[in-house]
Design brief:
The structure holds two protein chains of two kinds.
Chain A lengths: L2 E3 L3 E5 L4 E8 L3 E9 L6 E6 L3 E5 L2 E6 L4 E6 L8 E9 L5 E3 L3 E6 L1
Parallel strand pairs in A: 2-11
Antiparallel strand pairs in A: 1-3, 3-8, 4-5, 4-9, 6-7, 7-8, 9-10, 9-11
Chain B lengths: L4 E3 L2 E4 L5 E6 L6 E8 L3 E9 L2 E4 L8 E7 L2 E6 L8 E8 L8 E2 L3 E5 L1
Parallel strand pairs in B: 2-11
Antiparallel strand pairs in B: 1-3, 3-8, 4-5, 4-9, 5-6, 7-8, 9-10, 9-11
Classes of the chains: A mainly beta, B mainly beta.
Chain lengths: 110, 114
């Protein structure tokens, strides 16, 4: 089965850069995804890494290293509206399930 | 595109009652997923369908839970009888094909079982 671990909480100030890590134990997966969820809202897709390396989408970037069983989400030029929970997720090879990590709550302060 | 539509938005019921949650996926999407979210257990996959067929229901907690997808535009998740420990937010999500695609989530149903 899959196990994806994330820090429970991260805090930062507006304008800063923050990195949210995701370490996993898995027998095999297609790719690593990241989702954002505001309080009371639904998860929304942010990014996807099928291959090792960095994917950039505006202020957000995501990184994957399969050899290190590790990925991260990088948020730059933080804004107050970035305060939310962030989840990594992997889609398993043999079951085609999307399994979510434990989630990281990001609080951005002025 | 209206997105994934779930109803009701909130449900408050008493222990022992039957609860039915509803979901309309995005038109053209072939995969549908039911997730449950709690503080203690995070986002748990309950069951998912491909082309209206249940593929994996290993996440369904017990026999009190059942899910159906009678056609490509509608799915239900039923709990009978409900228990206080079922209180959670239940999300429905859909994707074009499978879990290796972007999932689009509905707004969720906040279920409280008293």
């Amino acid at each position: 089965g899959q196990s994806l671990e994330q820090p429970s909480e991260v805090t930062a100030v507006e304008g800063a850069i923050v990195q949210i890590n995701c370490t996993y134990q898995t027998s095999g997966f297609y790719g690593l995804s990241w989702y954002q969820q505001h309080d009371g809202g639904a998860p929304t897709f942010l990014s996807y890494n099928a291959l090792d390396g960095l994917e950039e989408t505006g202020r957000f970037s995501s990184f994957l290293s399969r050899s290190d069983s590790y990925g991260y989400l990088l948020l730059q030029e933080l804004q107050m509206k970035d305060s939310a929970s962030y989840f990594c997720a992997v889609s398993e090879y043999n079951t085609d399930k999307l399994i979510f990590g434990t989630g990281t709550r990001l609080q951005v302060f002025p | 595109d209206a997105g994934v539509i779930q109803s009701p938005r909130h449900e408050v019921t008493e222990m022992g009652q039957e609860v039915t949650l509803r979901c309309k996926p995005i038109s053209g999407h072939n995969s549908l997923f039911w997730y449950r979210q709690t503080m203690m257990r995070g986002l748990e996959l309950l069951i998912y369908f491909n082309n209206n067929v249940p593929i994996d229901d290993s996440g369904m907690p017990e026999d009190r839970f059942s899910a159906k997808m009678p056609n490509a535009s509608f799915s239900t998740l039923k709990i009978q009888p409900s228990e206080p420990r079922d209180s959670a937010v239940y999300f429905c999500a859909s994707s074009l094909v499978g879990a290796d695609e972007k999932l689009f989530f509905g707004s969720g149903t906040q279920l409280s079982v008293l």
